[in-house]
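Let us practice reading a record.
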Amino acid sequence: MGPDWSINGLSLLWALSLAGVAWYAGRVAVQITYITLADGRRQERRLPLLFRLMLPMAPNLTPVFERPFFAKTCRELDRRIIMAGFEGLLTGVEFLALRVMVPLLLGTVLCAAFGLTIAYLPARLATFFHARQAMFFFGFFALAFAWPGLWLQGSIRARHRQIEFALPFVLDLLTLSVEAGLDFMTAIKRIIDRRAVDAFGEELIRAFREVQLGSTRRDALRAMAERVGQTDVLSVVHALVQADELGVSIGSMLRIQAEQIRTRRFQRAEKLANEAPVKMLFPLVAFIFPSVFIILLGPILLQWMENGF
């Protein structure tokens, strides 16, 4: 009677623990997080669910990464987080903590799933996987450790694509406004007020507010280019600063920059189109052919493995 009650009690505790974890994950999944723009408006911005689940536990490791040894790495991560548009939701120190915690959590889940899977496999297959479990675990931990960095790089690329798409249109509006007689900052204010807020709009709002708070136009534009870190924005800001210093007409310079950006974007599209056939070779060889091979010969190989070849 005693052992049965202990087993049932342990099962109940496991069930309650899993239910608590599921409830917490569900609550975090439906939460909406925002960033506050320079003018007080809020924009929805979501971190990955795994980050949101583990972020409350990040302070346990932040004292380790706040040491001077990690100062340069944290500054670089802070800069990249700003480029990705997650300023205020995540810091470089928290990102380093998550980069350690994510492999540990996923590794624990993998160990449990791997053990349960092996228990239900045929003896030959169980022996095969058990002998190579170290290789599987090492590969999985490497991927789990690299995933936060890959996510951050992908977020930066996505934001840069949004800015690249919006930049020529904004430059055209600026050109029309300036040539119609408006001041440059007044033209930016009208664009901010009348356009839907996107990635480039967020940066324009911040630059405009910095000028209102006392920064010079050159400094505000240079700060925006440094935050964004996108080639086209750097080129436009450099041209604007030079035009301001040399007294060149801003309207004609903006028109030239818009045409150059469209030309570069068209050239990049042509380059990607020419590279597509080459990039398709790897998925074709690595996935399509092996899948056909597995479908046709998989049952035969499994039978051979169970019978000891």
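A brief commentary: Strands lie at 34-36, 42-44.
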